[in-house]
Write a structure and sequence with these properties.
TATA-Binding Protein; 2 domains; 10-stranded antiparallel β-sheet; 4 helices; DNA-binding; transcription
Length: about 180
């Protein structure tokens, strides 16, 4: 049975120009904050799609909080449109690349994290963090497994890797269960 995997955060980056005047951009963009003594970039929050965009003087733009790459691209297009309408030199259709995606799913059981922690590439320090950290090399992702059966997969570049990672973890847990019980 295919697990229900839900993307909860997509982080993308792009280049929208060079030498961006962040003070001016902060004045023209709604919901923008620019406090260079606290953070070197301009932070702009949109409500539809609900994302945060970080714009740096170098022209680099990061978008976080999107539920899909498409939502991030919509948000970036909105910001580009506003900046261009204000007379700023901005790249029209910048290449957007996914830096990280975070997905959640469920194992469908309550795993024994102490047992799983005997596997290679795992870390489990319940006094410090309630989840078991399982680092996979192919795909190169980090899987957090909680005692409730909830799973968080991070480090994704494509959604397909979430399914591959989940299948690998599920198979490994089945093998471990057969060895132990």
């Amino acid at each position: 049975m295919e697990p229900e995997i839900k993307i909860v955060n997509v982080v993308v980056s792009t280049q929208i120009g060079t030498d961006i005047d962040l003070e001016y951009a902060a004045d023209i963009l709604d919901n923008a904050e620019y406090e260079p003594e606290q953070f070197p970039g301009l932070v702009c929050r949109l409500s539809d799609p609900k994302v945060a965009l970080l714009i740096f003087r170098s022209g680099k733009l990061n978008c976080t909080g999107a539920k899909s790459k498409e939502d991030a691209e919509i948000a970036i297009k909105k910001i580009i449109k506003e900046l261009k309408e204000a007379g700023m030199e901005i790249i029209d259709n910048p290449v957007v690349s996914v830096q990280n995606m975070v997905a959640t799913t469920e194992l469908g059981m309550e795993p024994n994290l102490d047992d799983i922690s005997t596997l290679e590439c795992t870390e489990y320090e319940p006094e410090q963090f309630p989840g078991l950290v399982y680092r996979l090399s192919d795909p190169k992702v980090v899987v957090l497994i909680f005692g409730s059966g909830k799973v968080v997969i991070t480090g994704l570049k494509v959604i397909e890797d979430a399914y591959i990672a989940f299948d690998k973890i599920s198979a490994t847990l089945k093998e471990l269960e057969q060895e132990l019980y």
